[in-house]
Amino acid sequence: METYAAERLATGFSWTECPRWHDGRFHFSDMYNHRIVALSPAGEAEVLVDLGDRDALDGAEVVLAGTGFLPDGRLLVNSMFERVVLAVSDGKAELYADLRGLAAGPINDMVVAADGRAYITQLGFDLWAGEQPAPSPIIIVEPGGAARIAAGTDHLLGANGIALTADGGTLVTAEAFAEKIVAFTVGADGELSDYRLFADIGELPDGMCLDAEGAAWVALPVSSRVLRVADGGEVLAQVTVPQGEAGCSTACDLGGDDRKTLYIACGFEVFDFAKSREGAQGSIWTARVDVAGGGTRP
Question: Which residue is catalytic, options 206, 211, 231, 253?
């Protein structure tokens, strides 16, 4: 098993999540600060989106999670507790898809296919309110915002991180509360079928990405590490972060000009929004790995 060392790129954030490489740039969700932040190669932060002043639907807290880009360049972002997808252009957010009728609890991560079709994961219950895990189907959002439940996903227990192979033909997601990675075949109409086990992890998986060889990098927040796992379950590589400095490893993505830099989002105090903001210990770490992300998404 390969072992890679991680170095801290930047810190000073709340709970960091959903790292993304898009169009030659790295960004992530600074969740409890209501922001999407971009980092330079030197770790200098630029706020791309700040929705701290948003008049949220139903009085919900604005917590930004998964992101993706439409073919026209607009940024999509999930507002977890509002249960809506927002489209952001020039810093202004507009409602793109209202998922309140489909999502039983907070919505979570996202991957957007080349044609603009988005796949949204959801918890299925309110983790922050102490509710118990419940089934949480994947939600499909068509270009333009029409949304539906993906057939055959009703049984998923906390689908979390989510990714697409380069050809768009396979969708892979971390089924968090079942402690495994699972895969689906993506049809021409965007529907999902052929649910199967990709890897049995044995502890809770969070955010994830794929590489060009079809392996998954998956963040394990409990043990503060990131594993590279082959389709079939073989553990191929590991990156660890120092738990005392980094807290929990929440998510990962492959970026850089060659997509061989593994970006790892880490944070403290996931259950206490204010303490996470005030502590400002959320961070981004990087490790150089051997296999590139290629054309996988996100």
Answer: 206
